[in-house]
Amino acid sequence: MMAPGNIGDPAPAEARIGRQKQRYSEDGKRLVAGTIPIRVRGQTSLSTPLSCSEVEVLLVSCRNGKGMSFPKGGWEDDETLESAAMRETVEEAGVRGLIEEPMIGTFSFMGGKTSPGCIAHMFVLRVAEELEVWPESNERQRSWIPLAEASALCRHEWMKQALEVWIKLKGWTHLIQPAIPPALSNVSEKKEGSVVEGSA
């Protein structure tokens, strides 16, 4: 794990803004860093062993009000990948802790209609501290979700994939929900009012 860094320090007053220092890949994709914050249910102790039935995952509301996601943002040229991930996590979610190594992986996603895309570098963060006030606390809500339920609440498919990679690394594959075949994802069963929904 990485060193705890600024745990216990005063909360940052504001989030970084602008993209003057933003890093890009050789083909112009925006480089992003983020975390999947976790804890053992109701605790922020770093010494408590992880159990799949006790792990909770932190999700934050998107600023546009559409769904929930993991904290992430631009990796800038004056910081390491790990420090960027921790900075974005405290700015968006108001938590600090220890980053697990190695990194979960990299995940590509589209960043906008005119963007060539983004590449997200994702880590797991073992939470040790929750701030009462943080830079985006007036814009976002945070929620601790049982690990088994977190994937279904993620707005973005690539974030679900990142979470599933970590779950597989921990050997907890029984928590991964099987994908619904495309042919069934748009089918509604009206018998007894039941509906089959796609895994969007």
From TrEMBL:
Nudix hydrolase domain boundaries: 28-167
Alphabetized UniProt keyword annotations: Hydrolase, Magnesium, Metal-binding
GO cellular component: cytoplasm; nucleus
Cofactors required: Mg(2+)
A molecular function (GO) term: metal ion binding
Domain of life according to the entry: Eukaryota
Residue numbers spanned by region Disordered: 1-26
Gene3D superfamilies xrefs: Nucleoside Triphosphate Pyrophosphohydrolase (3.90.79.10)
Similarity comment text for this entry: Belongs to the Nudix hydrolase family.
Designated name of the protein: Nudix hydrolase domain-containing protein
